[in-house]
Amino acid sequence: MKHWQSVLVAETSAAEVINSWEKLSNELIRYIVNPAVWMGFIFIIIKVVFILIAAKLIVKVANKTLEHMMIERARNPLNLDRRRTKTIGKLLGNITSYVVNFIMILMILNQFGIRLEPLLAGAGVVGLAIGFGAQSLVKDVITGFFIIFEDQFAVGDVIQSGVYKGTVEEIGLRVTIIRTLTGEVHIIPNGTILQVTNFSVHNSIAIMDIAVPNDMNIDDALKILHETVMKNYENNVNMVKEPEVLGVQALGATEMTIRASVECKPNTQVQITRAINAEVKKALDKFRLEMASSRGE
């Protein structure tokens, strides 16, 4: 008797499970085939797409507006620091992009019925907890702020920080991007920037050490060098002051070194040195040929 009662209870339980499953399946099917559900889902997708497009357009328009404002500011005759203008323009563009994308994410979550008030409150608590653990990130942001505020360097400057030397491509609140002369791009967290050498703030000095044979007349060598550097000064807009021939820098067993210097625009000393060295070599070769012809050699 007890056996049959157990079998009856088991069959009853199985029937209830099957009925429950059938009811759930029917409810699911009715939900799936319900036109109102699909219309609501389509409306949500349309709204999300509209939000994405609107956010992209806002960022694009904001960047164009900032770019136009920076160009007008650079054309202002009273503006004396175009480096800072360019840097601030890029930073404002990044901040605008972050803010718009953050608002876009909140609006998309709202479309799916996620309440923003508890989310924002929870984000505040989580952010506080993360702040204690992400001290390096906070350090990067604070250092980036002071780099921009104190105008330590700007976009387009040539700087050296540690072993990295190159042109500053971008300064953000968290990282600084440097492109080297050979094309490598280095992304440096601002918190690790302990010391910076800026090569773009003041004019640079080009130093030319010209080696000439000891048997050459010193007055002729000085004259040739002076005429050559002055000729380059007249034709080179990167030289800001007249060159100086400083005289004999060193004496060797077979040759002497004559030094000349010139003040030039920032980061142009290398190309000026190369150009003057080439012109001096041509002038010395021409002088030797003329001396050889005069001796009848």
- Low-pLDDT ranges: none
Helix content: 55-70%
Please tell me how large the radius of gyration is.
37 Å
What is the structural class?
alpha+beta
**What is the CA-CA span between the terminal residues?**
138 Å
How big a fraction of the residues is strand?
15-25%
CATH architecture of the largest domain: Orthogonal Bundle
* CATH-derived topology of the largest domain: Helix Hairpins
Domain Mechanosensitive ion channel MscS C-terminal: 208-291
Subcellular location: Cell membrane
Pfam families: MS_channel_1st (PF21088), MS_channel_2nd (PF00924), MS_channel_3rd (PF21082)
Family: Belongs to the MscS (TC 1.A.23) family.
What topology emerges from the helices and strands here?
Layout: H1 2-33, H2 35-75, H3 82-111, H4 116-133, H5 135-149, E1 158-161, E2 164-171, E3 175-179, E4 185-189, E5 197-198, E6 204-213, H6 218-235, E7 244-251, E8 255-264, H7 269-295
Antiparallel strand pairs: 1-2, 1-5, 2-3, 3-4, 6-8, 7-8
